[in-house]
Amino acid sequence: MTLPPGQRAVEGFPRFGTHLHHPPPAVPVDPVIEVGGALTQTITLSVADLAKLPRQELRADFHCVAGWSATDLLWEGTSFAAFYRTQVEPLLDKPASHVIFEGLDGFQSIVVLEDALADDVLIADRLNGQPLDSDHGAPVRLVSPSQYGFINTKHLCRIEFHTSEPPIQDRWSPLASHPRARVWEEERHRHLPGRVVRPVYRSLIGPIRALSARGSRPQ
Ligand SMILES: Nc1nc2c(c(=O)[nH]1)N[C@H]1C(S)=C(S)[C@@H](COP(=O)(O)O)O[C@H]1N2
Ligand SMILES: [Mo]
């Protein structure tokens, strides 16, 4: 099994993220996704209707920028490209270049549209044959396994399209995220080479994992 540079396989699939010790957000009874930004009109798509768009199954590993990889996960959901072509493109006056994905916990990822349209990108509602649980992003999450975990926003509630790169808060921070975040290119950060930050991250995996597990859904 080959992993991208600087990654190590872990057992299972830990819950991880900036939410740390907070429990995952409650899933609304009838979840919807607001789709807006540079569209001629904002649309609200129910998660149930989203699931009726062309679907895709994807077996892939999942790579966190901190250096752990969960292997051999089976995702199912709506193809992002199919969602974009049928629901979004007809409502755009000029072509979009970037997409912001937002979760119910306020987490956001900014993705270059070209990367989001790759054929391994989906809005997943199932994992390993089960409905997606709250630890891993219920009701639906973005899955783009060729990009680091932080691109893969969980608990999706809003998708926003932009015609140029949206302003980025920590643009000049040495730890600013890489705008493409491609795992095989080891694009961990905008300014620092991926290799340099490996040891720092590795030392953080244990503590973050422990904190994050504390906020997990009770088993
Ligand atoms: N809504 C939301 N999505 C998120 C995060 C988060 O904190 N909130 N963390 C990101 C990070 S850094 C990683 S590594 C993955 C972890 O996904 P998992 O908890 O399913 O392992 O989710 C990503 N998506
Ligand atoms: Mo991550």
Mean pLDDT: 93
Q: Which homologous superfamily in CATH is the superfamily?
A: Oxidoreductase, molybdopterin-binding domain
Write down the secondary-structure element order: EEEHEEHEEHEEEEH
Relative helix content: 10-25%
List unreliable stretches of 5+ residues: none
Determine the structural class based on helices, strands and strand pairing.
alpha+beta
Share in β-strands: 25-35%
Plain-language structure description:
- This protein has 219 residues and is of the alpha+beta class.
- It is globular.
- The mean pLDDT is 93.
- Strands 1, 4, 5, 8, 9 and 10 form a six-stranded mixed sheet that branches.
- It binds ligand MTE and molybdenum atom (MO).
- Molybdenum atom (MO) binds next to loops.
Element layout with pairings:
Layout: E1 8-10, E2 32-37, E3 43-46, H1 47-50, E4 55-63, E5 68-79, H2 80-88, E6 98-103, E7 108-112, H3 113-116, E8 122-127, E9 130-131, E10 141-143, E11 156-162, H4 194-214
Parallel strand pairs: 1-5, 2-11
Antiparallel strand pairs: 2-3, 4-5, 5-8, 6-7, 6-11, 8-9, 8-10
Keywords:
single chain; 219 residues; alpha+beta; six-stranded mixed beta sheet; 11 strands; globular
Short description:
This protein is of the alpha+beta class. It has helices at residues 47-50, 80-88, 113-116, 194-214; strands at 8-10, 32-37, 43-46, 55-63, 68-79, 98-103, 108-112, 122-127, 130-131, 141-143, 156-162.
